[in-house]
């Protein structure tokens, strides 16, 4: 399986949804970096199931256990760890699994899940419990690695934040693509339901509850922004900033689309309207607009990076669906059991932040 990414900061994720544990190895973290484990646990807690109506009822604390690469600083106040230059390895135990909920899926693949292509690729030996290695559960170790990267970037004046951009077509207040204050950038992440506009959030919650009530699910979009990046980072062609960020974002299960700036909207307009004109402001080159999302030719412009990730509705719905039985090659009706999010978008917000943080760290590693 291709579970490794990165050129300078290499991330390798391991485990399955119902294996004893899941985890990550992060190689390339510079020695001497300090990490506040309380902040890391708080960040990972944003992804963990909350018990609210819009999340799965699976209860996992997502508490990381450090195996290597970080040493506790006994002289410091708080729970501070320091990197020693060795690969950082952390494991997260799976404590609330119900594998029996998946017994009927060995030969009957769930529509829009990875069950069928995984069965073909791995000759039927794929772990179907909870989706195995294809599960959203694997975003927990991504969030741990992302939390490390976020701390390293913050010390260098680079901030990353995200919010729910939309759920089922209901839109939140978007970021100002030209001027984003740190307070505005981080405010949604401090909320239980991470939106900029609470009134929009209430409408989203009503829609999620409606979908759940009929045994259905709903998709949405997460918008993420990065501020504080200098111009000139990245490379053209295949190592562009967009390429690297997209690779990490598509590592999050259920992501089906990524756009930067105004993305696909650019294709419906004219260059005279969508070109980002330059100006001098406080002695620096800026653009008056930011339709291109802070990246041109794969290289940062110094403007905020704006990226959105589109998430499909959770495929596991309680409604009867058409499938097939691979054992006898006949059509079969499937009713999915288990505990699933009616909308994964709220818990995906920190996952998007983590993926973007890992990508930006990998891009910046030579100058960290």
Quick take:
The chain has 368 residues and is an alpha+beta fold. It has helices at 37-47, 115-121, 139-154, 182-187, 198-213, 241-249, 271-274, 345-364; strands at 4-5, 10-15, 21-27, 34-36, 64-68, 70-72, 80-83, 88-93, 159-167, 170-171, 220-227, 255-260, 278-281, 284-287, 295-296, 299-300, 305-311, 321-325, 330-334.
Description of the structure:
- With 368 residues, this protein is of the alpha+beta class.
- The protein has a single domain (97-367), classed as 4-Layer Sandwich (Chorismate synthase, AroC fold).
- 24% of the residues lie in helices and 24% in strands.
- It is built from eight helices and 19 strands.
- It has helices at 37-47, 115-121, 139-154, 182-187, 198-213, 241-249, 271-274, 345-364; strands at 4-5, 10-15, 21-27, 34-36, 64-68, 70-72, 80-83, 88-93, 159-167, 170-171, 220-227, 255-260, 278-281, 284-287, 295-296, 299-300, 305-311, 321-325, 330-334.
- The chain has a five-stranded antiparallel beta sheet with strand order 1-2-3-8-5, with helices on one face.
- The longest helix has 20 residues, at 345-364.
- The model has no long low-confidence stretch (mean pLDDT 92).
């Amino acid at each position: 399986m291709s579970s490794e990414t990165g050129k300078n900061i290499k991330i390798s994720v391991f485990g399955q949804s119902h294996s004893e544990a899941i985890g990550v190895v992060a190689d390339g973290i510079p020695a001497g970096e300090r990490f506040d484990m309380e902040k890391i646990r708080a960040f990972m807690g944003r992804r963990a199931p909350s018990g609210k109506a819009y999340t799965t009822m699976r209860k996992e604390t997502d508490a990381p256990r450090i195996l290597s690469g970080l040493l506790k600083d006994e002289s410091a106040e708080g729970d501070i760890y320091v990197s020693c230059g060795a690969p950082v390895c952390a494991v997260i135990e799976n404590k609330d699994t119900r594998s029996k909920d998946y017994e009927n899926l060995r030969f009957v693949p769930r529509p829009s899940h990875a069950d069928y292509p995984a069965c073909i690729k791995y000759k039927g030996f794929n772990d179907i419990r909870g989706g195995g290695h294809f599960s959203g559960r694997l975003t927990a170790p991504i969030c741990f690695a992302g939390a490390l990267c976020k701390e390293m970037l913050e010390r260098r004046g680079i901030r990353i934040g995200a919010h729910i951009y939309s759920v089922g077509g209901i839109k939140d207040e978007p970021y100002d693509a030209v001027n984003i204050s740190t307070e505005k950038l981080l405010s949604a992440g401090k909320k239980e339901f991470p939106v900029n506009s609470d009134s929009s959030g209430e409408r989203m919650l009503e829609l999620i509850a409606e979908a759940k009530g009929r045994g259905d699910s709903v998709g949405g979009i997460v918008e993420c922004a990065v501020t504080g990046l200098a111009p000139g980072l990245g490379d053209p062609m295949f190592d562009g900033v967009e390429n690297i960020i997209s690779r990490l974002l598509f590592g999050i299960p259920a992501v089906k689309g990524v756009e930067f700036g105004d993305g696909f909207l650019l294709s419906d307009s004219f260059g005279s309207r969508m070109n980002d004109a330059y100006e001098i402001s406080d002695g620096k080159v800026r653009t008056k607009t930011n339709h291109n999302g802070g990246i041109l030719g794969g290289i940062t412009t110094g403007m905020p990076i704006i990226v959105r990730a589109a998430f499909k509705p959770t495929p596991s719905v309680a409604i009867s669906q058409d499938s097939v039985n691979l054992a006898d090659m006949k059509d079969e009706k499937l009713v999915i059991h288990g505990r699933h999010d009616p909308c994964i978008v709220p818990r995906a917000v920190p996952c998007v932040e983590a993926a973007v943080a890992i990508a930006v760290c990998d891009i910046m590693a030579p100058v960290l």
